[in-house]
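Lab manual, section 2.4: Encoding a predicted structure.

Procedure: take the sequence of the chain (233 residues), apply the prediction step described in section 2.3, and record the output as structure tokens. A sample record is shown.
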Amino acid sequence: MIKYHAAVTYDLYFWPSGAADDIFRLADQLAEEEAEDLAPDARVLTFRAELLRRWPDLADHLEPWHHDAEWITPGGRTDLADRYVLLTLPYSWHGISALPALAGWYGLDCYNPQAEQLVASRLRLQASDSGGPADITEIEGQVADNHVVRLCQQVSAFINYRYDELDEVALVGALDDTDDQASDAWFEYPLQGAPPLTIRLAQSSDGTRVSVRIEGSMDLVLATRIESLLDIL
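Recorded output:
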């Protein structure tokens, strides 16, 4: 009997923003290492270097070959590293959600061939003193009013803060007099995790949603996980 197993890895392509007239055709070409439609671009190499600086383990998942991974034997062409990046990642890899935002910072598109679409991020990164993207200090969004506790629980889990019944008690009635249109009418609640964050909450004008601001020093991975959480709540 033949057994079929679900894929445990997936691909992401990165190329200079706007370079593809037909993203499907380009992805098919790059899968065969045919990159003549892409011009060499220094931003691709800079993005590649930033990936390896943040996550050195990506060297084993990164194509095309470049001398920054000289211990790896080239399996194909060696002249394409300044045109595009291909990552083949396990679904469990922890930094997945951060990649579109990081690519956007360096002026690259992120294409997911499994979903056949470009992947974007709403995060707007600022420059650090070193010139690379700095930590994010604030994320805004909205959640349904019955999802506030779930939001606090999940963000707490992200930062290893033990959220318990005392935290839930603190939320009881806390939003009754809040108003997201008034800067001094927000409820603030600290989560003393790693890193420490402050969640600010206020009722929206329609009464069915709660506006959220999460403040603190968040690295790119944490920020994109919180952004994704807000999108589904």
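Check your result against the sample. The beta strands are 9-16, 62-63, 85-90, 108-112, 117-118, 136-144, 187-191, 197-203, 209-218.
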